[in-house]
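Risk register update: the risk of archive-format incompatibility is retired. Evidence:
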Amino acid sequence: MAKKNPKPNTEARREESLDGTIVFRLPFPKKLDAAALQALKELTPIVKRQPYHVEYIHSYGQDSPWFAALTNKVLLGNRDPESGYTYATPRGADMYTGNETDWVQLPSEGVIHAFTVCHFGSEEFLPETPFVLALLEIEGANTLFLTRVVGLDPSQASLDWIGMKVQARYLRNAKLKPTDVYFVPLNAQAE
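Archived output:
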């Protein structure tokens, strides 16, 4: 026996709350004729500020030793056991051979290879703008290490910074994020 389609609930509504953004009376034509619809192409874009938050349950998997090292004020890299090619960031397999890499301790000092001043950032970094983001050469590593450099005035950016020696500093209260390590000019006094 075939079931009859149930009658749709035409009174159904989504539950509403007073949380978040509530908008009243955005300018809009009262009469939607052809001219009004054409004029909508000239409407100034609506801009809205909106908080954003997402929680994740996340595994660091093969990179877990790298984050554990940061909490212990140690910088690790990975090395191909055959070729000796060394990565300044976690990498479980060599990009050329596919070999599983071994963990190696890297020095806590480096040299600025390139940098940029970030005047905009993602949600987490926006309050800290402007900041200096740099690619560092680390002795014994074949790749560069991307990190923040603190202690340089972003408003005084200078090509003189290229080649500057820097040293690692670690957050006292680790967050298990790549930003748990940052670098400062080598002659900066210890915190």
